[in-house]
Design goal:
Elements: E1 10-14, E2 20-28, E3 35-42, H1 45-61, H2 72-84, H3 90-108, H4 118-130, H5 135-154, H6 181-190, H7 197-206, H8 210-214, E4 221-222, E5 227-229, E6 233-238, E7 249-254, E8 264-265, H9 272-278
Antiparallel strand pairs: 1-2, 2-3, 4-5, 5-8, 6-7
Helix pairs in contact: 2-3, 2-5, 3-4, 3-5
Length: 297
């Protein structure tokens, strides 16, 4: 009775189409229990034998990666949903998903994972830069792709991270041009009757981020002591999933990103009058004491 061929033992056969095929058993499918085999092809027996020898050598070193037809686009979608969605904040996931959907998949999504080369990645960066994409956005694009391939190595889908050989554009420091004090005064004067004037005034006076400012509740404001507590933020994110329609978005409240972001803003007594008038629960009642009236910038 012939001996059964075990794992890591290869065979080479001559196919009817004229090619030579080398096959090797790499284990069993944990779901079905069936043997898992991979095959290599060559025009000559030696070509097939060389591929088989390389595979056996890689298996002995523990660096073998089974051939597969997974594309970059398929892996990016898997990486987003399985590895990033449960871990990162909604707004961060929203940014990752947009980079993948709008830039990485159109440029690289059709390429099989094992066939992606550094020049493919570099060309994608260069083309986006020439199309007007900012250097900072391309660096985010690079970070997303690098992270996806770092996980792919852990999953034994690829042997190396090809993005490490690509060079994203250098970050450039933009010169900021803030409003002058007089421009701030002119702006506040122009919107004095606008319903969001108190929010704009508070933003100028405290330096709160937009998400922090929009998430404020009256329970976070202590007008008597002149304090504001930053306890949450507000963000608009896309609705992801099979049941989402088009570009549907939603507003979500979330915890501040860091412990340092959860803080107390002092000295807001000067805005007492405007905030008091903006509170629908006390509108029409006695406003702030004269000493706490907003005196302008």
């Amino acid at each position: 009775m012939p001996k059964k061929r075990g794992n890591h033992e290869g065979t080479i056969v001559h196919r009817k189409d004229g090619r030579w095929m080398a096959s090797i058993t790499i284990g069993r499918d944990p779901a079905t229990g069936k043997l898992k085999r991979v095959s290599f092809y060559g025009k000559t027996r030696q070509e097939a034998a060389d591929q088989l020898a390389n595979a056996l050598s890689d298996m002995n070193r523990g660096t073998f990666v089974a051939p597969q037809k997974l594309t970059v686009g398929q892996w990016l979608e898997t990486w987003l949903q399985e590895y990033k969605h449960p871990k990162v904040r909604p707004l961060t996931f929203d940014n990752y998903e947009r980079i993948v959907r709008c830039h990485l998949i159109p440029a690289l999504g059709h390429i099989p994972m094992k066939e992606l080369r550094p020049e493919h990645v570099q060309r994608a960066y260069n083309e986006r830069r020439q199309a007007g994409m900012s250097a900072g956005s391309i660096r985010v694009m690079h970070a997303v792709l690098h992270g996806a391939f770092r996980q792919a190595i852990k999953n034994q889908l690829v042997l190396q991270n090809v993005t490490e050989a690509a060079v994203p554009p250098s970050a450039r420091t933009r010169t900021m041009h803030p409003l002058s004090l007089q421009e701030v005064r002119d702006l506040l004067s122009a919107i004095a009757e606008y319903r969001l004037f108190p929010a704009t005034l508070l933003g100028f006076g405290t330096g709160l981020r937009r998400g922090e400012l929009l998430a404020l509740r009256w329970q976070d404001v202590d007008l008597a002591r002149g304090l504001i507590q930053i306890r949450q933020t507000l963000a608009r994110v896309r609705v992801h999933g099979r049941n989402s329609a088009g570009k549907q978005t939603q507003l979500i409240f979330q915890e501040p990103k860091t412990e340092q972001s959860r803080r107390t803003i002092p000295k807001v007594g000067r805005y007492y009058n405007k905030l008091w008038a903006h509170n629908p629960k006390v509108a029409g009642s006695n406003p702030a004491p004269a000493t706490n009236k907003y005196k302008g910038f």
